[in-house]
Design brief:
Number of helices: 13
Number of strands: 13
Order of helices and strands: HEHHEHEEHEHHEEEHHEHEEHEHEH
Largest sheet: 8 strands, parallel, barrel
Structural class: alpha/beta
Strand content: 15-25%
Distance between the termini: 22 Å
Radius of gyration: 21 Å
């Protein structure tokens, strides 16, 4: 995206109104010059080593969907920053994931009681603007409504509540289709982070339903919608070999036992220098399952060790290369038929869950929505330029 496009969006917004890796601050970049409206080529400040003038949109350089995260409140907002956010979203991406609005804690409001309004708003925006929606996430140990945490019924009654929630949610969001009859919500992360390392994570669901709750959840989701794509999603699939092997073993058991599963989400919360050699290996291993592969939550820490007080050019370039490696290995290793897409976990740095008060700069845009060289790295990787 050219600097002119960003500045034009900001000027328009001013006129109308004024959301686990292993081995991260002030605002990066600087102001660009105001373009001369009578000039075909606006002046650009090329002295900033952290920024570049993008000429290609992410969704235009990939043969698979490119996504980012949203919330119903941001999509409804007419503030200058959220107007700019939506303009970038519409220009660069064609898939969206709800950061928190379509998780259990937000939707499962009481026994046999659901509030799908935030998700409905996201789906409506997607329908109007031509986005695919990836549902995230039906069951996650860190997103449980308080009433369910303290549920005093029997374990059988607890399981019945979770089963009804999964089925009601999947069925509800299967109802909205585009002009071709294709459901807008194409997929779900059915279970998120079942493993803790290579071991099964102890959670409310393992305690009250059993360690096979994940199998039941996939079966419930399939009963609710025979066509929606069902994903297992987890972090450190790249970087933790034992964990990856446990997930691959689980998938193998699913297939042997006729448990429905369509894909694996690799969260990809990475660091500028981790993982290195295991990154292409992990993508190859997951692709070898034959399932769809989704880079589901990509961001790259630049300051994991807190050794920087401000971003350096050297570190920014290392971060750029890590983004390039992800795009390149996904594009060149995963067979096209298994490329479900790549989703960035946030647009600008200050909105990232990793921002930490300004001590990390993990995304593709700085706080003023300027394109960073990390964007350039990802574009290069998606276009098949080897890192």
């Amino acid at each position: 995206m050219k600097i002119l496009k960003i500045i034009s969006v900001l000027l328009l917004a001013m006129c109308i109104g004024c959301s686990s890796g292993d081995d991260g601050g002030p605002q990066v970049g600087g102001p660009t010059e105001t373009p001369d409206p009578d000039s075909e080529t606006p002046p650009v400040d090329n002295s900033d080593p952290f920024l570049y003038s993008a000429t290609e949109n992410l969704k235009d350089v990939a043969d698979f969907p490119l996504g980012n995260i949203v919330s119903a409140s941001k999509l409804a907002s007419t503030s200058a920053s959220n107007t700019t956010f939506k303009d970038i979203l519409n220009q660069e991406y064609n898939s969206i994931t709800a950061e928190n609005d379509m998780k259990m804690a937000n939707m499962f409001t009481g026994p046999d009681t659901y509030d799908f309004s935030d998700g409905d708003a996201i789906v409506a925006y997607a329908l109007e603007n031509g986005f695919r929606v990836h549902g995230h996430a039906l069951i996650w140990h860190s997103s449980i409504p308080n009433w369910l945490n303290t549920f005093e019924g029997t374990d059988e009654e607890f399981e019945a509540q979770v089963e009804a929630y999964v089925k009601a949610t999947v069925a509800h969001f299967a109802e909205v289709t585009d002009g071709d009859g294709t459901p807008v919500v194409a997929s779900w992360d059915v279970v998120n982070e079942y493993f803790d390392g290579s071991a099964v994570r102890t959670s409310l669901f393992t305690q009250r339903i059993g360690t096979d709750f994940h199998e039941k959840a996939f079966q419930w989701a399939r009963e609710a919608d025979p066509d929606v794509k069902l994903f297992y999603n987890d972090y450190n699939i790249a970087g933790e070999v034992d964990k990856r092997n446990a997930i691959i073993s689980m998938v193998s058991n699913f297939i042997s036992d006729d448990i429905p599963i369509d894909g694996i989400g690799m969260q990809m919360h990475l660091n500028h220098d981790w993982p290195s050699t295991d990154l292409p290996t992990s993508i190859q291993d997951i692709a070898d399952t034959g399932l769809l592969v989704h880079i589901s939550e990509l961001d790259v820490k630049a300051n994991y060790s807190d050794d920087l007080s401000e971003l350096t050019v050297e570190r920014a370039q290392a971060q750029e290369e890590q983004y390039q490696r992800v795009g390149y290995y996904y594009t060149t290793i995963v067979p096209q038929a298994q490329q479900f897409g790549l989703t960035i976990w946030g647009v600008r740095d200050q909105d990232s869950w990793l921002y930490d008060g300004g001590s990390d700069w993990p995304l593709l845009y700085d706080n003023d929505f300027n394109t960073k060289i990390t964007h350039r790295g990802l574009v290069d990787g998606l276009e098949g330029v080897a890192p």
